[in-house]
Structures are given as C-alpha cells and as structure tokens.
Amino acid sequence: MTVTDRTALDKTATMPSTAEARRRRIRAIVGWAIVVALVLLVAFVALRVSASGPGAMGTLDPEGRDDGGAMALAEILRDQGVEVAVHRSRADARAAVDDESTLVLTNPYSLTDDALTELLEPADRVVFLSSGTHLLSVLDIGANAPGSSSPASAGCDVAEFAEVGTIRADRFFSPADGVTECFGDSDGAAVLVDDGGDGRDVAVVEGTRLFSNAYLAENGNAALALALLGQTEKVVWYVPSFSDTDIEGESPDTLGSLTPPWVTPVILLLLVAGIAAAVWRGQRFGPLVAETLPVTVRASETMHGRARLTAKAADAPHAGEALRDGAQRRLARRLGLAVHASADEVADAASDRLRIPRGTLQALLAGPLPADDAALVELARRLDDLEAAVETSTRTTRGEQ
Fold first, then answer.
1. Are residue 78 and residue 226 in the same domain, yes or no?
2. What is the rounded CA–CA span in Å between residue 193 and residue 154?
3. Gap between the Cα atoms of 395 and 381, Å rounded
4. Domain limit, last residue, from 223, 244, 265
C-alpha cells in the first residue's frame, strides 16, 4: 500500500458517516424544540398566574382580594344594608348617581379636569378615598400639610364622626377657607369635609392604608369608612383606569420616526445579505475532517529544550528530580526490574549487585534534592558513577556466564 493510499484510507476512516451526521442533526433539532417548548410553557404559566392572581386589581379596588384591595370594606357596607354598585366606566357611574347615592372614587388620575367635573355634576355627596396635589387644587378644598402619626380623634363638629374613635393617618391636609378639618392637630388634618354652598358635600381622605383589606380592622378605620360611605342607601363606586381615560397622549418620537423611510428596508436587506453570505461561506468547504499529521520530534531536541527552560529558571531541585527519574528508569532496566520500579526497589537491587550499603544508594536515589547548582552537579556525577558501576557489573556477570 502506497503512502497516498494510506492517507486516503485514514481520511475515509476519520470522516463521519452521513447517517451519524443526520443523527446529530436530529438530536440538535429535538433539543432546541424542547427548549422552546419549555420557554413557551413557563411564559404561559406566568401569564395565567399574573392574570388570575389576587393582586391583579388596583389599590382600594372594591373587588380586590389582596392586601391593597377594598373588598372587605365593600362587604361591610353590604352587610349594613348599603347597595354597592361598582363601575369601571365613568359614563355608567355618572348615569347611576342619583339623590340617594354617594359617589366614591380614588384619585382620578386617568381623567382630565373637564371629565372629572362632568362625572361629579349629578352627585350630591362625593368621597375621595385618596388624593393628589392636582386633585386638591381642582377641588379647591385644601393643600398638603405635615402631621403626626400618633392616634387622633375627630375633633370636629361633624356628627357622623362622633363614634369613630381614633385613627392613625399617613397623610394630612391643611383646609381651605370654609372647609372642616377632622382627625388632626394644629398642623394638619387627615379628613377634609366641604359642605359648601354649591349643594354638594365633598370629603377627602388618604385611605390607601386606612381602608385596605390589611388594615381595615385596626383602630377606628372601619368606623371611619362607614361614617363616610354609609350615610346613603346606595354607593356608586367608580374605579379609574387608563382603559377609561379621556387623556389624549402624544406618542414620543422613535428612531423609526426620526429616520428617512428608506433606512429600515436597507437595514433589513443588509441583515438578509449577511445571513445569506454566512450560510454560503460556511458550507463552501464542507464539514471539518480530523487528520493526524506525521510530526516527529527527536528526543534530543526535547531534552535540550527542557534543559534550557530549567537552566533559565534556575530550578536546581526540579532538574535534580528529572536526573533522578531518568537514572532510576535506566538502572531498573539494567537490573531487570520493571520500568516503574520504586527507588527502594532499585536501591535494593543495585546494593545486591555492587555489594555496597543499601542506605547509601537510597540517599542518592530518594534523598533531599539539590538546592543549588553545585549540589546539582555533584548529584549528576554520583548518578553517572552509579550507572557506570551497574553497567560494568552487568557486563562482567554476562562474561562469566
């Protein structure tokens, strides 16, 4: 067989078969399919949990079951004989308001001032369960103020609050002229009541914590809620949301709107061209083939190279260890021992052959390593003498036989 035939045979033997490549491709496709399926499954479960979880409702939502919801307050009102109608459309809420009802809502962040005025127009009694700086300005009922978190009683002439007891409020207001302040001190009040001359009673309280499911049973929170919302036979509870907003937002400028129309098609075309070029060049030379190259390095080159590295590092102990290993293997071969015989075994065999003390040879083959160049030279000389003596003894024994 010629060298060319042997090379071709080696290439054929190392080249993967078509069936094996197909199996690897199928395993890769199945693996990626499993990964994609797991990702889709996790996303589906996360969406279901987020959609059905108790925290899906907003703060002080009368249908919210989580700690921030107000379902407990709505159920207490129903137990007291008050009809609670929940509306998420401002048009439906406005149509449901009549003379015997109380309009209840949190800070209407999703409505403009005109929409809020239109919503409040038919209501004779309005209670805001939370507020913002802008809402206080629109209602002209007061402003934000500092206050203390210590328990506070009504301290005002509003008859509904006489049996409430004490509450711990988180936010306080300073009243405008003609507005009654309750549950506070000289710095501010937690509840503002405006029974002005426009025929509408408006009450404002920051009840995000007071009336939530988690804190409704503390102090006089439930009693305050009943005093505010239980004065009429019906409560129309409007829940603001962005789905019911009348605010017309302007979409911000994006990179696509700021660039010329032809930029996006050009980018897509370049991406497609790059992918096509990668596929084309990637398959140009076919699959990789492993080939063992006939590289031969002479032992003398390796020896000289290691010697230069050891000399450059000035590592006498490492060089001494290398000398011992080489001498021990050569001695084991000459004494008829295994190549990997231990130093004790080589020392015993050499001691028997040369008729010299065993301890001397053990110290030479397994003793302390040289610490400097002088000790290294002495070790090399003694090992060379030992090898020469064993070689001479071996030749003499063979001659006598």
1. yes
2. 12
3. 21
4. 244
Task: Give kind and range of the element (H or E) at residue 221.
Answer: helix 221-229
Q: How far is it, in rounded angstroms, from Cα 58 to Cα 49?
A: 16
Q: Helices in 53-171 by DSSP H: which ranges?
A: 71-79, 90-96, 113-120, 133-139
d(CA 94, CA 111): 14
Mean pLDDT to the nearest integer, 233-257? 78
E strands, 318-389, are none
Query: Coil, strand, or helix at residue 126?
Result: strand
Q: Give the integer Cα–Cα distance in Å for 238 and 59.
A: 13
Residues 383 and 320 in one domain: yes
Number of structural domains the chain divides into: 2
Torsion angle of C-alpha atoms 137, 142, 146, 150, degrees rounded to 10:
-130
Answering whether pTM is above 0.70, one says: no
Highest mean pLDDT among 32-46, 91-105, 247-261: 91-105
Check whether residue 304 and residue 204 sit in a common domain. no
Specify whether 105 is located in the same domain as 198: yes
What would you measure as the largest C-alpha separation in the chain, in angstroms? 140
Joined together, the tokens standing for residue 68 give 């921030």
pLDDT at 54: 37
Asked if residue 23 belongs to a domain, the reply is no
Confidence of residue 337 (pLDDT cuts 50, 70, 90): confident
Q: How far apart are CA 309 and CA 163, in angstroms?
A: 96
- Tokens read off for 278: 């990668």
Tokens for 164? 């409430």
Q: What is the pLDDT of residue 96?
A: 92
- The pLDDT mean for the chain works out to 81
Round to whole Å and give the CA distance between 131 and 296. Answer: 87
CA distance 147 to 268: 60
Pairwise CA distance, residues 82 & 380, whole Å: 108
**Would you say residue 10 has pLDDT above 50?**
no
DSSP string, 2-55: -HHHHHHHHHHHHSPPHHHHHHHHHHHHHHHHHHHHHHHHHHHHHHHHHHHSGG
Domain extent for 240: 71-244
- Shared-domain flag, residues 240 and 316: no
Is 264 domain-assigned?
A: no
Whether 180 maps to a domain, the answer reads yes
How many CA within 13 A on the CB side of residue 6?
Answer: 6
